[in-house]
Each structure stands twice: as structure tokens, then as C-alpha cells.
Amino acid sequence: MKRVLAALILVAIVPGCTTSPSRDKQSELPFAIVRTHFLGSLWNEAHARASIISQDGGESFVVPGGAIWAYGDTFKGSRSSDGTPHFAGGSISPAIAFLADSAVSYPPAFNYLVSSNGDAISPFELLPTEQPAQNYRIWPLGGIYLNGQYYLYYSLINVFGTGSWDFRCVGSGLGRSPVALGRYSRLQSHGNWRFPVDPTQVIEAEGWLYLFSVETCHGESGAALARVRPGKIEDPAAYEFYAGAGPKFSPNQADATILVENVPGQVAVAWNPYLKKYVMASSSDFDHPSEIRFLAADAPYGPWSPPVARIQVPDLAQGKEVEMAYCTYFHPELFREDGRVMVLTYSLGLKDSGFDANCEMVEVEINRSNP
Q1: Which range marks the domain in which residue 311 is found?
Q2: Is the CB of residue 214 less than 8 Å from the CB of residue 223?
Q3: How many domains does one find in the chain?
Q4: How far is residue 50's CA from residue 159's CA, in Å, rounded to a whole number?
Q5: What is the bridge-based pairing of β-strands 95-100 and 111-112?
Q6: How far is residue 269 CA from its own chain's centroid?
Q7: How would you write the pLDDT of the chain (371 residues) with one tens digit per residue?
Q8: What residues are paired with 144 via a beta bridge?
Q9: Choosing a second label site near 120 at 20 to 30 A (CA), which of 15, 33, 43, 148?
Q10: CB 270: neighbour CB atoms within 10 A?
Q11: Chain-centre distance for alpha carbon 29
């Protein structure tokens, strides 16, 4: 359950924010959910070929010919024909996979980054100072393809004990690769790998990269926003931070203001052509452990609506009782009917399952309030 807990407490990674008043509520809901189709676990033969038993995370970003999907803690081994897991070979973090445009979307026909023996491997390497290796994890964040290069943000996690809370985030950085499914070099500006952002979503719009994350400021958690020019993505000093309605952005991180309050865990944002709006998906919190909420806005910087729609994940999944859904991510590369059918995945904390849990996929069919 360590990753499940991390989904909620990592909102405190970046300090120095201030909270802002709630945005004006929209007088009319922009869409309604008319159908949800829960497809089930993503685990399939592609995972088996890469010796993967279970994993969480699952954010994706579009690249030429398909999309890269990035997963967090990935446990290795095999399954019996009845589905019983046999853990062997430890774990890696993260794992990445390529899903081609022409591939089956469900169950997804992934092509994992693997070693010469066919086992999944991490696209990142620890630095010489990050030892012993078993005390560190690298969890993937959002990614984007720019000018022939593939970028993936990440968080470095230090595990210092065996308890569920015995870990801390050391910082966040940015990796770069010349190929989609390859090794990602951890960029170091002036010898420092740390970047001032930890985005789970990167959106390119209006000549900027908008980077969404979840932070805690003065006891209040919510979605935060930063931006950078695409050509400056590798420069940690070039990032600006949302500092209030207008919108206002500041190069001083101390001026940062929460964009949307009460957004826990992770945040996902996608442009929906059918709605002609941006849609945000918010992960669960402890009071609503199986709920996914949707918000809407005309621009990445808002103003964002209050939750306009909600779905509840099934109580049972993969043969276990669902305790929490987290790491909810959009996959706009799989949207259908111009976004009228949205596709999301989410990770699960399952009762008495240990590390045997995989991401699940759901299709959400919507109708505009004013067709």
C-alpha cells in the first residue's frame, strides 16, 4: 500500500505556495456522463512477456506513431494459468511501454522497454550518490515530445524503512531521450538534477508548456500550475508559477498560488475537442476513496469549474475488495468520437492483495449540456 499512501501525501513535495479564493462557479454544467464502461485490469500477455506481475501509475504522452505509458513501482515474476502471482526478480521503478496507434487499445498491446533477456527495465539510472540502490525509487511524472526529443519528468524517492510511511521525496527532475522507448538521461543544470516542478500532466498550448501538479500550501491541497516556453524546458530557471487569476505568473516560486482547491493525489488534464474545453480528472481522497471527479475550463489556467461530474469505481476488482482508486490519468490518444468518449486509467489499492494489483481502464461517454 506504500504507493497508495504516496498518492496522497506527495502533495507536500513543493513548499512555498499560497492559497487563493475559490473560483466563481459556472452557472451551467458543460457536460453530463451518460455511460461508464469499466473494462477491467490492463494486465495481459504483453506484461507476461516482460515478466511483469503488477504495477501502478500509467500516465501517457503522445509521441510519433503512438504514445509512451509510464508506470511506477513494477513487480516482476510470473503468473500461473489461474492468475496466481509468483513474485521473482524484485521490482523496478519506473517502467515504460510504447502503445502504437495501430495497436489494440484494450487489452493494450504494449511494447515494454526490456533488457536483452526480455525482462522490463527502468529507463532511468541512479546517480553514484544515490546508494544503496535499494533505498531509492524513481516514480514517473508527466511527459511530452518536443523537437525530436522525448521528455519525462520524475520524482526521486528515498525509502528509509519498511513501514508504509517510511519514504520521502528527495526532489523532482527531468529526463530526456532521443528515442521514445529508450534510456532517459537525467538532465543536470550546473551539476544539479533538481527542477522546481513535479508535474503529473504537461499540456502544450498558446506557445507555452503548462505543467499541472498537486501541492499542499498552508494546510490546503490542490492543483498547482507552472509554465515554461518549449525551447526552455531544460532550463530550471525559466519556469514560471501561477500566482492568481488574470492569469498572473511569476518567476518566483514563493508567489505560487493554488489553481484549484481540494484536488488530492494526482491531477490529469486533457483538451476535449467535443466539448471545446479542457477537462481535469481528480483522484480519490480518504473521504471518497473510490471516486473520480471531473472539472472543466476554457483555458489551462482557468477559471476551473467545481466538479461537474463524478464516477464511482466498482467495489470489487481483480478478485479483491477495492480500498482506494488513485493515479487517475486521461489517455486522449484513445479518445473516440472527438472526445465524446473519454478513456482513463486508474490504479487500485486492493484489500489483502499486497503488491498484486494492476491499473484498470474505464470509458466515460458524455453529452454536452448544450449540443
Answers
A1: 2-368
A2: yes
A3: 1
A4: 25
A5: antiparallel
A6: 10
A7: 444 444 444 433 333 454 333 343 444 689 999 999 999 999 999 999 999 999 999 999 999 999 999 999 999 999 999 999 999 999 999 999 999 999 999 999 999 999 999 999 999 999 999 999 989 999 999 999 999 999 999 999 998 877 666 889 999 999 999 999 999 999 999 999 999 999 999 999 999 999 999 987 666 779 999 999 999 999 999 999 999 999 999 999 999 999 999 898 899 999 999 999 999 999 877 788 999 999 999 999 999 999 999 999 999 999 999 999 999 999 999 999 999 999 999 999 999 998 999 999 999 999 998 76
A8: 151
A9: 148
A10: 22
A11: 26
46 in Cβ contact with 109 (< 8 Å): yes
CATH number, domain at 164? 2.115.10
Give the Å distances, CA to CA, from 92 to 36, 82, 211. Answer: 33, 25, 26
Listed in sequence order, the residues at least 6 apart from 192 whose beta carbon sits closer than 8 Å to its beta carbon are 236
Task: Work out whether the CA dihedral 212, 1, 320, 110 comes out positive or negative.
Answer: positive
C-alpha cell at 52: 511483469
**Which residue type sits at 360?**
E
**Upstream peptide bond of 30 is cis (omega within 30 degrees of 0):** no
